Amino acid sequence: MTVSRKFFALLATAAPLACMPAHAQESGGVEKRTRIILGPQLAPSWPGADKFSVGPYIDVSRTRDNEFAFEAPDESFGSPLIHSGNFAFGPAFGFIGKRKASDIGADLPKVGLSVEAGAFGQVHLTPELRLRLEGRKGLSGHKGWTGEISADYVARKGDDWLFSVGPRVTLGDAKYTRAYFGVTPAAAAASGLPAYDPGGGVQSIGLTAGYHRMLGKNWGIAVYGRYDRLVGDAADSPVTRELGSRSQPSGGIALSYTFGGSR
Q1: Phi (first) and psi of residue 55, to 5 degrees
Q2: Which domains does the chain have, with CATH numbers?
Q3: Higher pLDDT, residue 246 or 262
Q4: What is the DSSP string of the chain?
Q5: What CA–CA distance (Å, rounded) separates 101 from 151?
Q6: Fewer CB in 10 Å around end: N or C, the chain?
Q7: pTM score, two decimals?
Q8: What is the pLDDT, as a whole number, of residue 31?
Q9: Residue 137 has pLDDT above 80, yes or no
Q10: Counting beta carbons within 10 angstroms of the beta carbon of residue 32, is it exposed (0 to 12), middle (13 to 18) or buried (19 or more)?
Q11: Count of beta carbons in the 10 Å neighbourhood of residue 110
């Protein structure tokens, strides 16, 4: 996960919500509640980086139920288009910041800002256990396919507090992996690194934990931590071994504000 993954897409959602009356009525007289989470987060500047960037930890949720639906703090932005029982399906959007030669410290090709679009599917096997699969295509930047398989165990007391923890498996095709971890013969001659032609597959294995607690009727606090370890071709790359790191920690802390409806 990178710092900017949710930011731009969520701004598009947050802007109209901020202009809406706090007590707008839905059809049938059911009043929705809205929750905005905003704070800083720290994450690797690009896949495999040993440098970190500070960016916004942001989320916007709405509900007509007694409690907000669970969202993992590190999942891509996207709202369900289909929600049937315990199953949900919808779009997924992500962003990865650009990587320049001066950023990485070697004469490697630039990877531009990657705008990713795709879809997710998730199922609650039980109220406490959710499985989720994401797949996203880079429309710019790396222009490859990437995705994630995740599972989360969720413990909660309504909306008073919520704790989640679960494993992550990050995937990337050959085009994605070569963009961040490959070294072409030309780049090898320019950078001094050995040539390296990685394939696609599992990029990293990790774990995420998150916690949200209400501090009163409206205000709350949210924190999360994530650790990923690069594996396979990504871990063996000279870009990782000499210029980056196999360890990919990230985390954030934010205030939440809930308004509308009744609690």
Answers
A1: -145, -175
A2: 7-259 (2.40.160)
A3: 246
A4: --TTTTHHHHHHHHHHHHHS-TTPBPGGGPBPEEEEEEEEEEEESSTT-S-EEEEEEEEEEEESSSSPPP--TTSPB---SEEETTEEEEEEEEEE--B-HHHHTS----B-PEEEEEEEEEEEEETTEEEEEEEEEESSTT-SEEEEEEEEEEEEETTTEEEEEEEEEEEE-HHHHHHHH-B-HHHHHHH-PPPB----EEEEEEEEEEEEEESSSSEEEEEEEEEEEE-HHHHH-HIIIIIS-SEEEEEEEEEEEEESS--
A5: 36
A6: C
A7: 0.86
A8: 79
A9: yes
A10: middle
A11: 13
Taking residues 11-15, report their average pLDDT: 42
Q: Report the sign of the C-alpha dihedral through residues 192, 196, 200, 204, in that order.
A: negative
d(CA 49, CA 52) in angstroms, rounded, equals 7
Residue type, 33: R
Q: What is the pLDDT of residue 14?
A: 43
How far CA 42 is from CA of 10, 53, 101, 208, 237, in Å, comes to 18, 6, 22, 14, 24
Q: Give which of 174, 144, 150 is closest to 234, Cα–Cα.
A: 174
